[in-house]
Write a structure and sequence with these properties.
Blueprint lengths: L5 H18 L6 E5 L2 H13 L5 E4 L8 H4 L18 E9 L3 H13 L4 E9 L14 E2 L27 H4 L3
Parallel strand pairs: 1-2, 1-3, 3-4, 4-5
Helix pairs in contact: 1-2
């Protein structure tokens, strides 16, 4: 299996995200990258969109539910959110969606800062290994992995299934 070109995926992601935001009439979303992999994806996405708004970064190390089992990540950094969260439309960006635990931790941290109007989740790669109820509308690259894939490099038994954008609104997620 040859790996896709991340620049092409970012370009496709930008087009689909722009269409999604226009459809939802969201004109000034706030972008947040989850450390560490989501930050570079978020910056590349902002560059591709030609958006010069500030990028927030989230380090969810202290919010993870497996913190007591795995301990603290050796490179913990403070989160930096250069804008208000309350009432904002957020685009939460990560590189890989696996179990959903990182996304749950990110949502917990974000809600400590305030209640956003909506949250759109954008991931470059969906490993389709969900353990938590985060609905997968779609993703840029979806791999059917029964095994744990620790990085962007999937084992030989992974096969891409689609090439679409993963989005999720907090209103939909909450059943409202």
């Amino acid at each position: 299996m040859s790996l896709p070109n991340p620049a092409e995926l970012i370009s496709q992601m930008a087009l689909r995200l722009k269409a999604h935001l226009e459809h939802r009439t969201i004109s000034e979303p706030r972008f947040i990258g989850i450390r560490t992999g989501g930050v570079w994806v978020a910056q590349a996405l902002l560059d591709e969109l030609g958006n010069h708004s500030p990028l927030g970064t989230l380090d969810v190390s202290f919010y993870r539910d497996d913190f007591s089992q795995n301990g603290l990540h050796p490179q913990v950094r403070p989160s930096a959110l250069p804008f208000e969260i309350e009432g904002q439309h957020l685009v939460l960006i990560d590189d890989v969606l696996m179990s959903g635990r990182t996304i749950r931790a990110a949502m917990n941290e974000l809600f400590d800062y305030g209640r956003p109007a909506s949250v759109t989740l954008v991931c470059l790669l969906d490993l389709d290994a969900g353990e938590l109820p985060i609905a997968r509308c779609s993703s840029m690259l979806r791999a059917n992995c029964a095994t744990s894939c620790p990085s962007m490099v999937c084992p030989a038994n992974c096969s891409p299934k689609s090439s679409t954008l993963l989005t999720r609104s907090s209103k939909s997620a909450a059943g409202r």
